[in-house]
Amino acid sequence: MICERGENMNNNRTKKIVFSALMAALTTAATMVIHIPSAFSGYIHLGDGMVLLSGMLLGPMAGAAAGGIGSMMADLLSGYAFYAPATLIIKALAAFAGGYLYKHLRSRSRSGGFRVLPFLTAGVVCSAVVTGGYFIFELAVYSWPAAISNVPFNLVQNLFSLIAAGALLPVLLRVREIRELNRETAS
């Protein structure tokens, strides 16, 4: 019995590591597939939806790693290496905040399925972290006009990412393995 429990824990840990790597790769891909340059050295993409989903599905810590690394890799592969360190930190914080809020707000719900209020709350906070994080970074690196000029683009990106994540989350929660991982993460 003890051996079986240890094997089950190793199996769950392996699944979480594999799923974290998959979410990092999906974050990279979603960031790079739709890639619309914005006003000042940035670009609009759907990767933030994957960052949010990483936090919600994997939990705050693993979600932060997947969202941060996946987003940073997209910057490195897309020629935005200058942004990569800031992206790692900002997106990791966004996934952590979104995952933490989603976990705690969902724990109050009796249902294991999709819940709109926890999703929207986590999504808005995640978006605020991303928009605020890049504003602070660009304010420090460039100037006030440059930093403020990217805010509307970041807000548009966050809106589309929130819509994409909202469309994907209910579908993903129907997959047994993801539902089990999410239930484990929520406890």
From TrEMBL:
Residue ranges crossing the lipid bilayer per the database entry: 17-38, 80-102, 114-135, 155-173
Alphabetized UniProt keyword annotations: Membrane, Transmembrane, Transmembrane helix
One GO cellular component term noted in the UniProt record for this chain: membrane
Gene3D superfamilies listed in its UniProt record: 1.10.1760.20
Domain of life where this protein originates: Bacteria
Record has Membrane as a keyword: yes
Protein name: ECF transporter S component
Organism: Lacrimispora celerecrescens
